[in-house]
């Protein structure tokens, strides 16, 4: 009698479900990384700061070049270029001081809100450097726009034909906020919304109402105070006493 021995066949085990790999975990020698974030758009403030930094770099390089090629390096190399937001009626201003010990301090202020192009920077900075040359090189602290200053200005313009230096030069300022008189069409410009048409009248015709030339957001109605009183301007202010639109040299 023949006995046949059979071994039971084993049912193959199905692979278990693979758990999803977590972000950053290693799977089979590879590392899954998080997807790159979409870069944020550059804000207007960041763009303005970057633009101003470029102007400051350009002004400093121009100062070094003119001092080397025209003023023979006799202007103090430590002269500071100070960008000021408060200069609204002059594009630039040179400063020179000598202490009792004979130590000289020099600086040039440049108007941030007026010098918005390389051309204006060239003309203004070279103008103020001519003032420093009169005071430092020629040792004449009383010199303004006389013969000595004009001789330096002519020397600069002969060397650099892209620079135009004059004793007075008006710059038209680009104001972000402007108002126009509805009567005489006179325009007032400001760097902030400092003119309130409901409180002032035109300073030229004395009667016209000022209308904003920019989009004005509607204000929410204010809740009256407990006393029920509201302060109202009794006499409109005249905005003509504010600084003019034209800018002159310092």
TrEMBL record:
One of its GO terms (cellular component) is nucleus. InterPro entries: SprT-like_domain. Residues 221-250 are annotated as: Disordered. This is SprT-like family-domain-containing protein. The lineage of its organism: Eukaryota, Fungi, Dikarya, Basidiomycota, Agaricomycotina. It comes from the Eukaryota. Coiled coil: none annotated. SMART domains: SprT (SM00731). Residues 56-212 form the SprT-like domain. Pfam families: SprT-like. GO terms for biological process: response to stress.
């Amino acid at each position: 009698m023949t006995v046949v021995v059979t071994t039971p066949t084993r049912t193959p085990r199905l692979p278990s479900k693979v758990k999803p790999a977590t972000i950053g975990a290693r799977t089979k020698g590879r590392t899954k990384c998080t997807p790159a974030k979409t870069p944020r758009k550059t804000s207007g403030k960041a763009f303005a700061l970057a633009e101003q930094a470029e102007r400051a770099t350009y002004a400093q390089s121009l100062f070094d070049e003119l001092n080397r090629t025209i003023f023979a390096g006799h202007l103090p190399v430590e002269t500071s270029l100070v960008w000021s937001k408060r200069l609204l009626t002059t594009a630039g201003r040179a400063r020179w001081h000598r202490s009792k010990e004979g130590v000289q301090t020099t600086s040039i202020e440049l108007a941030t809100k007026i010098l918005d192009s390389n051309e204006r920077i060239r003309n203004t900075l070279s103008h103020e450097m001519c003032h420093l040359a009169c005071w430092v090189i020629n040792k004449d602290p009383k010199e303004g726009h006389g013969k000595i200053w004009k001789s330096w200005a002519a020397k600069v313009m002969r060397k650099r034909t892209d620079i135009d230096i004059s004793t007075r030069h008006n710059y038209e300022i680009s104001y972000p906020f402007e108002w126009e008189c509805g009567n005489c069409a006179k325009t007032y410009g400001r760097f902030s919304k400092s003119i309130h048409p409901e409180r002032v009248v035109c300073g030229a015709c004395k009667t016209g109402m000022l209308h904003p030339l920019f989009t004005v957001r509607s204000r929410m109605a204010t809740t009256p105070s407990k006393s029920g009183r509201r302060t109202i301007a009794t006499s409109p202010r005249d905005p003509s006493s504010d600084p003019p639109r034209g800018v002159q040299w310092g």
